[in-house]
Amino acid sequence: MLLKSTFQIKNRFKCTIRVWRTIHNLSVPDGKTYINGKWVAAKSGKTFPVLNPANGEIVANVPDCGDEETNEAVDGCYDAFKTWKNTTAKERAGFLRNMFELQMKNSKSLAHIITLEGGKTLAESVGEITYGASFFEWFSEEARRIYGDIVPSPFKNRQLFFFREPIGVAGIITPWNFPNAMITRKVAAALAAGCTCVIKPAEDTPLSALAIAQLAEEANIPPGVINVITTSRNNTPSVGKRLCEHTKVATISFTGSTAVGKLLFEQSASTVKRVSLELGGNAPFIVFNSADVSKAVTGAMASKFRNSGQTCVCTNRILVQEKIHDDFVAALAKAMQNQLKVGEGLKPDVTTGPLINENAVRKVERHVQDALQKGANLILGGKIHSCGKTFFEPTLLTNLKKDMLISKEETFGPVAAVMKFSSEEEAIEIANSTRSGLSGYFYSEDISQIWRVAKALEVGMIGVNEGIFSCAEAAFGGVKESGLGREGSRYGIDEYVQIKYMCLGGLD
User: Fold this and answer.
1) What residue range is the signal peptide (predicted)?
2) What are the catalytic residues?
3) Measured on CA atoms in the order 32, 356, 107, 137, is the torsion positive or negative?
4) Residues 296-322: pLDDT tens digits?
5) Taking a C-beta distance cutoff of 8 angstroms, is the pair 457, 450 a contact?
């Protein structure tokens, strides 16, 4: 039962910005973060601005925390774990169910925050809030299904038991592109298992994390169970290192770039931490001659241009078999022209918002120019959009080659690059030619080919005749340099539990 029925925005949040030429009161934190059940400022008094990527305006100022606040949060989180781990699974399920209901009740306000700080279109932000809430719902049910085992003993006078117990304090480090759902996917599993959390959100999008903390407070989750450390880009390396090296932190869960993931993995080695990593991808999208071209184009549009191409499972390389190549390219170009509308995420009918910052735009520009210099053909787009310096035109390139940056790196922008191939074997070789292995997609109406290719692709997740596959029920994670561990589904709990073996003797 919810003890509070409304999202108490007005009491804690003060900010006014101009949207659609109208003044709206919006929920942005007034220089406070959430540590040990209290809303506090950084001890230094320093703050940093959160910018709206669509127009560069300051949405809010939040505390610029450092090692001192991190230590305080971890100590309180560790103390809270001593009691939280002894709550019953039914009690934890109730708290998580409250979180689910609160998030759904306040979905519009939470979506508005995502669009303001991250630039995502409002429709996509609403979708993220629903997706994020589904993890609270799912793990509220999984909390009561964390079972142990009784193993047949080789000795008549002994019994062998295996218990699953919460691992301890979880350091949660999340990216900017899904500022709500990447937190809920980790935190819901951790809390269900009986762990407590210190959340370090991305410096670009800390407001969504603070909103989740407010939900936790309203859901009466005990102080110290959920903490948020907001940090500027300058302080982020120090805080991340402190979480990895702190002896009271039992596990680190990180979603972000492969380079940062490797660094956190290395820093966690000194205390032999459990580490869960969901890292960068370079997803192939293969369209075979047997595919339904119309369905493949629909899937490519969904997979490539969601969040302006800024998702870890976005299509990065589109491989099309030669017989249907020209038809596919023509249909994709038409779909892009008819379906994609660039603009600020709060405006109606906009499908493609800004990139997160100017550095992201520069990377996309570099990839496009590199491809053109190496022989790619420009069909659509190719430059910064007239909407502003953080907007990039939806771009279609053909004649993609293996030596181009787009083939080697994750572009993270609205660029569809198409490569022609001749045989199934060639497509698989190209698809597997990177060290990334997060996700992949392919379209085929040949059932034998579907099974062959699904087995051959070196990725952790595959969409077959489907451009979007994420849901709370599915295990999310990659292989090769795209990650360790799985999130979501029943496997998500495993990242936050440890196995204890007990041999009970003297049963003569």
Assistant:
1) none
2) 278
3) negative
4) 999 999 999 999 999 999 999 999 999
5) no
Start-to-end CA span in the chain (Å)? 49
Left (φ > 0), alpha (ψ -120 to 50) or beta: where does 20 sit? left
pLDDT in tens, 318-345: 999 999 999 999 999 999 999 999 999 9
Q: Are 25 and 12 in contact (CB under 8 A)?
A: no
Backbone angles phi, psi at 140, to 5 degrees: -65, -30
How would residue 23 be classed by pLDDT, with cut points 50, 70 and 90? very low
> For the chain, give me the number of helices (H) and strands (E)?
15, 22
Type and span of the H or E element at 184: helix 181-193
Helix, strand or coil for residue 446? coil
The pairing of beta strand 415-421 with beta strand 315-321: parallel
Output the DSSP codes for 23-78: EEE---BBS-EEETTEEE--TT--EEEEE-TTT--EEEEEE---HHHHHHHHHHHH
* CB neighbour list of residue 429: distance below 8 Å, 6 or more residues apart: none
At 419, is the secondary structure helix, strand, or coil?
strand
Contact call for residues 368 and 415 (beta carbons, < 8 A): yes
Strands (DSSP E) contained in 121-267 are 149-151, 159-166, 169-173, 196-200, 226-228, 249-255
Tell me how far apart the alpha carbons of residues 77 and 111 are, in angstroms, rounded to a whole number: 28
What tokens appear for 280 in the block?
Answer: 């960068």
DSSP single-letter state for residue 492: G
Split at pLDDT 50, 70, 90, the class of 411 is very high
Contact 252, 274 (CB under 8 A): yes
